[in-house]
Amino acid sequence: MAELNPAPFRDLVTRLYREPSVQGSLFDLARRHWYVEKPSHLDFTVRMHGRSAGNPLGPAAGPHTQMAQNLLLSYVAGARILELKTVQVNDALDIPRPCIDVTNIGYNVEWSQELKVDDSLREYVAGAMLIEMFRAHEAYATDVHRGGAGDVIYDMSVGYDLAGIQGEKVRRFIDGMKDASAIVAQLRDEIPKAYAGARDIDYPVNLSGSITLSTFHGCPADEIERICEFLLAEHDVDVIVKMNPPTLGKERLEHLLFDTLGYTAVEVVPHAYSSALTLDESVQLCDRLVRFGADRERSVGFKFSNTLEVRNHRKFFTPDNEVMYLSGQPLHVITMTLTDVFRKIVGPDVPISFSAGVDARNFADTVACGFVPITVSTDLLRPGGYGRLSNYLKRLAEAMDKVDARTIDAYVLNRFESDAGGEVRCAGVCNTSAVAKGVREDPRYRADRNGKTPVRIDSHLEVFDCITCDKCIPVCPNDANFTYPTPIVAFDVCDLIVQPDGSVIEASATKFEITEKMQIACYADFCNECGNCDTFCPEYGGPYIKKPSFFGSVDSWRADGSRDGFVVNAPGDRLHIMGRFEGIEYELSSDDRTHTFSDDVVEVRFSVGDHAVVSLKTLKPIEGAHRVRMNVYHSLLHLRDGVLDRSRVNQINAGHHEFDQSA
After folding, report:
1. Do 375 and 288 fall into the same domain?
2. 597: phi > 0 → left, psi -120 to 50 → alpha, else beta; which?
């Protein structure tokens, strides 16, 4: 089972400072996709619970906010309100693999964080520090990363029930986000000497004062209320309550889903309706919680919405997953309609955040509704990944210019004709009705427009060589997939057949060949086998399955014995790689004169250059002939030397002693 393993902070810092200058990217996000485009005459800043953010856009609590590099990538691409992945007391989940399917719309079977709660806290603090390093770097940051345009808000997300949230584990997490000084001090000391200037940055330690509550589907109203009261009163934080689509009611929801949008293959789980809050319950809950928060000078808002529980009717997830969670285009229409209904009842003064099928084409109109924040997940799982965010903000700028609005408030007032009387909050409510009506009528959200699947070619992935389209790299939220260089080679190799008496003969020749200068690999410690790279890879097999997986340590390589993979380290002065091919373990180490290759049965020393056998010894008694696989030997050489090649920075060589950290 794949498990995420956070990288050493020193290695992340090395990548931040080295990678852009070496290959013009940051955690494989090409510099052309960094957000730099806001026109100087426009002000995107918004306020959330009294804090300022450079714009209302951010990743939703999910796969894009789980690890430190995720937060940095989101920020560099343009996000300014980062909703951190939900933490809960049960931090040893057995999550199905694969767990994400965005073949056309969006389905998932994910839950909360896949790290231990304490590790999640460390990752969130590390991510915030990386962002501050980026903002302080003269060569990287531009005006959209400095001043108010660069202000960032970190919004916690916790779940799923009162008992867990009241427990010591979640309490410690919340306290750590409110005062991260101890972790900041620890991570500050881990910054490499080569970048010692970054130790002097004034890193924020009060990272968050707000929580988006993500209760389990079907959590009763009274428990939601008690959780919110506990968070408001005991933790002194602002709270946003995440709502569920079935609150719209079965009749209205299914009219939209089936009659309006045509998603007739989808079946909503009956339990979703019977366990969801009714609209009346939600309105009453809103009234009580807003007053409870106001008495304590805290803000209470509502988020629309959670995903929609539907039956697993596809073949992507394993059959034992009876329920999956729908997102994307149809959820946008359902959720916008629910938000409109809710706002008309509760009025303009209740803060609303939004997350459901947001993309570049509807983001500007969603901003016009006055929602803060507006978060996205499904669209970032499509080709381009985080790089898609900058287009959201570019289109917002175009929309604001079209109505001669220089601020977000002015845009909310000017986007649609309304009877708001110059009140921004009232205009947001009116605009929500206009936008909800528009998306219900827009054919691009309908099933017949969203049934295409990514094109496959008649080709299967292998360890080396593919069409190197690089689609698998940006669609990975964690930057697990990366490229590394290899020489183009083609030569014959002969396996060595070792007899029980120690004699050796050569087998028939086979060809070892590499036809591409650039290869794809997976950094296994960042890969949770979600399956998203396989969805968009034009070839069969799945990059996370067929491409070589490199682990960050021998321990993580040993722990994941279920799949082939490799670990590169350097005991003494020898370059070393351990590998697992088809379940068999191999080792290769090198010095200036020889390569030593073993398979736990035979150890062979080859001369550097011509690969002639220098010596051979058996490590255990041989029964029958034993084959020394020379294709594996040459594969290990090219894999090791490729990922350590200094012409490209990756997670392996960033932490390797051979990588020049003094440059």
Report:
1. yes
2. beta
With 0-12 CB in 10 A as exposed, 13-18 as middle and 19+ as buried, what is 169?
A: middle
**How confident is the model over 625-649, as a mean pLDDT?**
96
Q: Which domain holds residue 395?
A: 26-449
Distance (Å, whole) CA 425 – CA 420: 8
Choose one of 449, 470, 499: the last residue of a domain: 449
Q: Is residue 472 part of a domain?
A: no
Neighbours of 297 (CB within 10 A): 10
Is 515 in the same domain as 420?
Answer: no
Closest CA to 513 of 644, 631, 595: 631
The helix/strand/coil state of 32 is helix
Q: Check whether the bond before 98 is cis (ω within 30° of 0).
A: yes
Asked if 519 and 431 sit in the same domain, the reply is: no
For residues 394 and 489, membership in a common domain is answered with no
Task: Report yes or no on 634 lying in a domain.
Answer: yes
Q: Is residue 265 part of a domain?
A: yes
Same domain, residue pair 436 and 536? no
169 and 58, same structural domain? Answer: yes
Over residues 508-566, the pLDDT tens digits come to: 999 999 999 999 999 999 999 999 999 999 999 999 999 999 999 999 999 888 789 99
User: Does 585 map to a domain?
Assistant: yes
Count of domains observed in the chain = 2
Q: What is the pLDDT of residue 659?
A: 45
Query: Of 449, 472, 507, at which residue does a domain stop?
Result: 449
Residue 432 is given by DSSP the state H
Residue 41 pLDDT > 80: yes
**DSSP string covering 595-653:** EEEE-SSEEEEEETTT--EEEEEESS--SS-EEE-HHHHHHHHHHHHHHT-TTS--TTG
Cβ atoms of residues 313 and 267 within 8 Å: yes
- Are 536 and 551 within 8 A, CB to CB? no
**At 221, which amino acid appears?**
A
pLDDT for the residue 133: 98
> What's the rounded Cα separation, in Å, for the pair 586 and 584?
7
Residue with tokens 């719309």: 105
CATH number of the domain that residue 162 is part of: 3.20.20.70
Q: What is the largest CA-CA distance in the chain?
A: 96
Distance CA 563, CA 574 (A): 26
31: its two tokens:
């510099």
Residue 172: which residues within 8 A CB-CB, separation 6 or more? 117, 118, 121
